Description:
Elements: E1 3-7, E2 10-17, E3 24-28, E4 32-34, H1 55-62, E5 67-68, E6 73-79, E7 102-106, H2 109-116, E8 130-131, H3 133-137, H4 147-162, E9 171-174, H5 176-182, H6 184-202, E10 211-220, E11 223-224, E12 237-239, H7 256-278, H8 290-309, H9 315-330, H10 336-356, H11 368-392, H12 416-419, E13 421-426, E14 435-440
Parallel strand pairs: 4-12
Antiparallel strand pairs: 1-2, 2-3, 5-11, 5-13, 6-10, 7-8, 7-9, 9-10, 13-14
Helix pairs in contact: 5-6, 9-10, 9-11, 10-11
Amino acid sequence: MMDVVIVDGKARGIVTRNLITGAIESHSAHAVLLCTGGYGNVFYLSTNAMGSNVTAAWRAHKKGAYFSNPCYTQIHPTCIPVSGDHQSKLTLMSESLRNDGRVWVPMTIEMAEKLRKKQIKPQDIKDEDRDYYLETKYPSFGNLVPRDVASRNAKHVCDEGRGVNETGEAVYLDFRDAIDREGEDLVRSKYGNLFDMYLQITGENPYQTPMMIYPAVHYTMGGLWVDYNLMTNIPGLYALGEANFSDHGANRLGASALMQGLADGYFVVPYTVGDYLANLANEKVPVDHPEFKKSEDQVKERIQKLLSINGTKTIDYYHKKLGKIVWNYCGMARTADGLLKAKAMIKELKAEFWSNVRVLGTGEELNHSLEKAHRVADFIELGELMMDDALDRNESCGGHFREEYQTPEGEALRDDENYAYVAAWEYMGEGLEEVLHKEELVYENVKLTQRSYK
């Protein structure tokens, strides 16, 4: 999808590019439903499918749909660590592994350095020299603390220099005690497929040596703003599933994506879209309507612009640079100074992209290079909005952790008095700052309280 077509203030169709032939095609409708997933690949490396992108939602945003809470991204703690610059995707290991696996790193930097240099093996480290940091810090929940807490603590011990792989960005997830307690056969019956997957990817046998894990981008809680009917602020334009912001707040819980898919697609939208259509005039907007032609011309102009740059850098070069900026400054932890720096870096990256990217092929064929260029251009613009959103929220809450706002124990410090709202951003035009609209969160039957997992 290349664009949403708005006629008389209502969404009345879309403009697409045929992936096989490159033909620009218009499709008229009485309503438009976007079920296009999340934007986790803005980080370049994530657990998402390679084709996952923000383009449909972003094009709707640039036509007036509000984009909500973009800085709320979920970093999953149980992923196979990055092994090098050659990677284009990360692998998620199931959350269930933390039921029996124990997370640890060496007590000392010196011992971690020996592990990284392969001078010793993890089995050589005695229990008294292991730091089971989640169990120590959170005795009530131990290794079962929520994802944001587990991820931040993994980052913290690795930042101290106690990471255990060659890059220094990994911790151990150890099943030694579970195997001793229950036997290998029972552990295999629970996790055999996951252990096999880990062996195939890493070449290491987790029955004999601890798994290595590190946090990775997994889910995006932000997305297009919708009301209780799943309609955006543009009449007739709906967003479902991870494409919207609606169900997960600041900190999505495990399996709730499945819940949202079922709720949005099965229980909600079949009824709410029917209600909308029942109050809509039946006449169809033809695809030769001026608004369709205007959108088609804009799409063709954008395609031609990308193809004509003929620069020296690949699309992946810019995507990787963007991903590192967003990961380093708007990932597991953020600061005001870092976010301001990152925003300036993204502005520079955008200017360089549009003057020096090299897009291969033509517009009249199957062209993965052109597809990717569109997506990365949209990711770059989204990245800038993520920085704005994180800068606006001077608190720590769920997936958004501002280092300036934490308790003396290093936990997230919320500010419910000033920030209990949904941030809904409105696109104002190329080169202009977006405008923030606030949807206040009012709780009548529950009291907001600070989380504690001690």
